[in-house]
Amino acid sequence: MHETVPGEYVHLDICVIPPREDHNYYTLVTMGMGAYTMNAPEKDEARAELLINLPPDWNLDEDAWEDEHWFWPVGILKALARYPMLHNTWLGWGHTVYGSEDSHADNTKLCGVVLLSPGVFGDPASVCTLPNGEPVNFYQVIPLYREEIKFKREHDVDRLLEKFPDELLEVIDPARPNVITDAEAIAYDDALMDEAKTHLAVIRDKQLPVEELAAYNHMAIYLRWCMEHDRMSNPFLAEHKDVVEAVKGGQFSDLRVFLRDSEDLRGRLHLTWFDREGTEFARWYSWGSKATPYNYNKDIAAHARAYFGDDRHGGEAYLFVPWDERYYQEMAEIISRRFAQWEALEENQEPRKTLCIRPEDIRPLLPDWNGPRGCFASDRVMVDGCKVGELYRLEPDRGDEGWDSGWNFLAGDEDEEYCDDSRHFSIYDLNTLCNHDPDIIPLLGMPYGTWLERGEDGQFYEAEDEAGEDEVEGLEEKAKEFVKDVLADDTSEYYGIVSYFMEFHRDDLPENMVKALFPVENPSALTLTEMADYLQLKRFGSFLDEETEEQRFIMDLTFDPEITNELLVIYFNADRQIVNISHES
Q1: Are 535 and 482 in contact (CB under 8 A)?
Q2: How many CB atoms lie within 10 A of CB 256?
Q3: 172 and 235 share a domain?
Q4: 465 pLDDT exceeds 90?
Q5: Whole-structure pTM value
Q6: Is the pLDDT confidence value at 467 over 60?
Q7: Number of structural domains, the chain?
Q8: Please, what sign has the CA dihedral across residues 372, 377, 383, 387?
C-alpha cells in the first residue's frame, strides 16, 4: 500500500504479506516509521515499525477503503506510526493507545490497542538491525476492548496476557471474546501445555480405529521423561512421590492411566508440575506456541511420519503409532537432544559464584516443606555472607507456581544502583537460604505480599514504607510542580508527553466538556502551565518493581475522572523522587 499523498515527517507505506503456510492470514507491516527517531528513554527503543494480522478473507482492495469495516486496521497502523512524531513521544512494548469512547468501527466494540512483540513469528522477528548498528523494533498491534484496557491499567500487561489464548492474539477478529467479561466462557489457563480432551475429540469425531488411551500417549512419554530426569516440582513430588519413584526405579512405565484417572492431573500436562528447569524448558519446547523453535507436538508428528514411511494417516498419524517401549525410547532420545539444545542457549549460562556456604555443609532443614522451593537472593546475602535483613514475597508469574516460592531475600543495605544490576541476584533452593540464615524458617509460610525487615533486636517486623495521607498530598503538589517545570522547558524529555496531554484537553475535546473541566470564562485562553492547577489525584499506590526489586510509587493525575479517562501517570522511586511520566488512556 503505497502512500501517494505525503504525510508529515516520513513517507509511510504499508507492506502486505499474503496468507502463507503456517500463517494463513495477511500481515500488514509499516515501512517508514523506523526512519524517525522517537523520543524514547533508551537509544535501542528509539526506532520501531508496526504490524497487524488480518484474516485471509479480509477485503484489502482499495475500493473497500471507503468502508470503515475494512479500513480501520489500516487506519490504526497509519495513526500509530505517526503518533510519536506528532507528540514528541515514543511507542514500545506493552504501551496501550487510544481507548476513546468510540469503537474502531461500528461492527466491533474493540476501542484501543496494546503493542506486543510479534511472538508468533519467533524472536528474530522482533528486531531488525540497521547497517549502522541501530535496532528497529517490530511491535504487533493487538486491538483491545475497554475492559481489557482497564484491567491492564490496574494491573500490568503481563497479567493481561495471562488471560489471552494465543489464537486471540494472533489474528484480528472484530467479534472475538472479551478476555475480561467472557473469562468464564473462555476458561483459558496460561500454564496449560496440552490436554487429552483435544485428542480424544479427534478420535471420536473422526471415528478413528484406535483405542482412546492413544490420546494420552505423547503426554505420557513427556511426563515419564521428566520424572526420569528429575524435572518434577516439589508440590508434584509431595502428591505423587510413589509414582515418580516407581518410574525411576523401572517398576512403572505406562503413565497413560495415571494421567487419565488422577484427580489433579485430569488428562493434562501443566507447567506447574515441573521444577524451574523443567518449566523453562517446557516453555521453550512443549508449550504449544508457534514461536518456539522446536515444538514437541511437531516432533511427535515427525516421528509418526517416519514410523509409517508415508502420510497414510495424515495429521492423526501420531495416534496410530503402537504403544510400546520402543516408542518411548525413540521419543526420549529426541527430548533429551532438545533439552541439550535448550541448555546450551546463551541465556541459560549462569555465572559461577563462590557462595558463603559450602555444598557439603548444607543440611535438609525443610523436610516437611511441600511448597515450591525456588527463591531469589542478592549476592550480599549468599556471596558476602550477610544475614537476611529484608525479605518479601511476590506472587509468581503464571506457570511458575510449581518452582517459585515468591520469596526474595536481601541484606537490606543494597542501594538502587546495586539492585538495578541483575547480576547481583541469583535463584537458590529455599533450603540453601535456610542453612545460611535459619531465622527465616518460621517466616516461609507467610502469604504473598509479605514484606519484612529485621530490627535492631534481630527480630523481623512488617516493613513500614507506605505513604500516609499527608505525604500523598505533598507528593501530589510535588507532581504538579514538576509538571509545570516540564512545561517551562521544551527541551525536557517529558515535554512532548505533558504538552500533548494538556493541549488535548484544552483544544481537542468538545466545547461543553472543556468548560466542565475548566470552569473559567475562556478555557481556550488558559496556558498549559495554568492548566496544571486543575489536575486531580485519581489514584495513588505502591508496587515492587520486579526488574529492580525496589519499591515504586505510582500516581494517576487527571482533570475530572467523570469526564475524561486520560491519565498523566507519575512514577516515584523509594526516595519519593520522580523518575518517569507517561500518558495513558
Answers
A1: no
A2: 22
A3: no
A4: no
A5: 0.69
A6: no
A7: 4
A8: negative
Bridge partners, residue 140, by sequence: 51, 116
Within this chain, do residues 475 and 455 fall inside the same structural domain, yes or no? no
Beta bridge partners of 341: none
Separation of first and last alpha carbons in the chain: 29
Closest by alpha carbon to 582, among 517, 500, 514, 473? 500
Mean pLDDT of the chain: 89
Give the span between the Cα atoms of 64 and 29, in whole angstroms: 19
Instruction: Quote the DSSP letter at residue 415.
Output: -
Sign of CA dihedral 416, 471, 495, 75: positive
Q: Which of 362, 380, 387 shows the shortest CA–CA distance to 425? A: 380
DSSP code, position 107? T
CA angle 63, 68, 71 (to 5 degrees): 60
Query: How many whole angstroms separate alpha carbon 159 and alpha carbon 181?
Result: 15
Q: Domain range spanning residue 420?
A: 359-462
Give which of 472, 502, 500, 498 is closest to 485, Cα–Cα: 498
CA distance 289 to 192: 11
Q: Helices then strands (H, E): number in the chain?
A: 19, 19
Domain boundary among 462, 479, 514: 462
Rg of the Cα atoms in the chain:
27
With 0-12 / 13-18 / 19 or more C-beta atoms within 10 angstroms meaning exposed / middle / buried, residue 573 is middle
Q: Tell me the one-letter amino acid at 130.
A: L
Q: Judge whether 292 lies within some domain.
A: yes
Here the cell at position 85 is: 512524531
Per the structure block, which three cell numbers stand in for 166? Answer: 494465543
SS3 16: strand
Q: Of 323, 347, 371, which closes a domain?
A: 347
User: Cβ distance 564 to 534 under 8 Å?
Assistant: no
Distance CA 233, CA 277 (A): 10
Q: Is the pLDDT of residue 577 over 60?
A: yes
> Which three cell numbers, joined as nine digits, stand for 377?
537472593
For residue 8, being part of any structural domain is answered with: no
Q: What is the mean pLDDT of residues 241-245?
A: 96
CB-based burial of residue 562 (10 Å sphere; 0-12 exposed, 13-18 middle, 19+ buried)? exposed
Is residue 500 included in any domain, yes or no?
yes
> In a 3-state reduction of DSSP, which class is residue 98?
strand
The reply to whether 420 falls in a domain is yes
Looking at residue 526, its amino acid is L
Q: What is residue 447's predicted lDDT score, i.e. its pLDDT?
A: 92
Name the grid cell of 502: 494538556
Domain match, 386 and 291 both: no
| Cα 545 from Cα 45, distance rounded (Å) | 20
Please tell me the number of Cα atoms within 13 Å of 537 on its side-chain side: 15
If DSSP codes are grouped into helix, strand and coil, which group holds residue 421? Answer: coil
Angle at 271 between CA 318 and CA 22, to 5 degrees: 50
pLDDT (mean) for 222-248:
97
The residue type at 291: A
Backbone φ and ψ of 537, nearest 5° = -80, 120
User: By the 8 A CB rule, do 428 and 382 touch?
Assistant: yes
